[in-house]
Write a structure and sequence with these properties.
Strand content: under 5%
Helix content: over 70%
Largest sheet: none
Number of strands: 0
């Protein structure tokens, strides 16, 4: 029982230490939330990720539609 308590305490301490050292989002001073959203939306890497996600979603939807149509013809 004592070893379990020590183990839980050690895990909690490590989790706290790792959590406090994680980088936080950098917010520029006096930048409105709307401006941040526009800046992030226009970010080239974000555009690439959105385009890639849209292509992947379209391919998955097309695959599901074909599967559904095959199921109807049987």
């Amino acid at each position: 029982m004592r070893n379990k308590i020590i183990l839980i305490g050690a895990v909690a301490l490590i989790a706290y230490a790792v959590g406090t050292r994680t980088p936080r989002v950098q917010v520029k001073n006096r930048e409105s939330v709307g401006h941040q959203v526009v800046r992030l939306w226009n970010d080239p890497s974000a555009r690439r990720r959105r385009r890639k996600a849209a292509k992947k979603a379209a391919a998955a939807a097309e695959k599901r539609a074909k599967k559904a149509l095959r199921g109807l013809h049987r």
